[in-house]
Amino acid sequence: MEWLSLDSIVTIIGLLFGGGSIGGIFVWRYTKKQAEADAKKAEAEAKKAEAEALKEKQDYYQQMADDLAKDRDYYKQDRDEYRQKLKAYDERMNELERKVARNGRMVENMRPFMCADLRCKLRQRVMVSEEGEVKKATPKKKNDIEPNNDL
Questions:
Q1: For residue 113, which of 133, 141, 139 has the smallest C-alpha distance?
Q2: pTM of the model
Q3: Is the pLDDT confidence value at 10 over 90?
Q4: What's the total number of domains in the chain?
Q5: Is residue 75 part of a domain?
Q6: Residue 150 confidence (pLDDT)
Q7: Is 133 contained in some domain?
Q8: Range of the structural domain that residue 98 is part of
Q9: Label partner for 108 (CA 20 to 30 A): which of 1, 15, 59, 119?
Q10: Whole-angstrom Cα distance, residue 4 to residue 43?
Q11: pLDDT 10s digits, 50-85
């Protein structure tokens, strides 16, 4: 058993550990574990980056929603202001239409007393009330035209 001498055993152990076969296995296992740990770390970092990107996206959409709400409030306020202006305009138009109608009634009530000939001696001065009633006016001055009742 000469081949199992102490020198041969030391040589075999030296070859295995020193030559890299068993040492290589240990190094390989260590690097494999290190690579797995690095992969897990990279995966965790990727998930973290993805989460941050999603958070930024969510913040962006939230900002858009807030801006839209502000714009909606602004446009509602504008719409309400324009509605008030339109209502005031409609009220003014209705008032003007009432005045035109009242003036039309007054003119219709005055029509029998109207004469196109300004030199007509039958012309009479009349007063028309707001309601459209016609009353004969009394002359206040001597120069006012008095009605000619000769006919």
A1: 133
A2: 0.40
A3: no
A4: 1
A5: yes
A6: 47
A7: no
A8: 8-114
A9: 119
A10: 51
A11: 999 999 999 999 999 999 988 888 899 999 999 999
| DSSP-assigned states of every residue in 63-102 | HHHHHHHHHHHHHHHHHHHHHHHHHHHHHHHHHHHHHHHH
Contact 116, 97 (CB under 8 A): no
Tokens standing for residue 95: 């008032």
Phi, psi of 139 (to 5 degrees): -65, 140
Q: Does 93 map to a domain?
A: yes
Beta bridge partner(s), residue 136: 126
Q: What's the average model confidence in pLDDT over 92-109?
A: 89
CA–CA distance, 81 with 88 (Å, rounded to integer): 11
> Is the Cβ–Cβ distance between 126 and 134 less than 8 Å?
yes
Write the pLDDT tens digit of every residue in 30-42: 788 888 888 999 9
Instruction: Quote the tokens at residue 117.
Output: 């000939």
Q: How far apart are CA 4 and CA 12, in angstroms?
A: 10
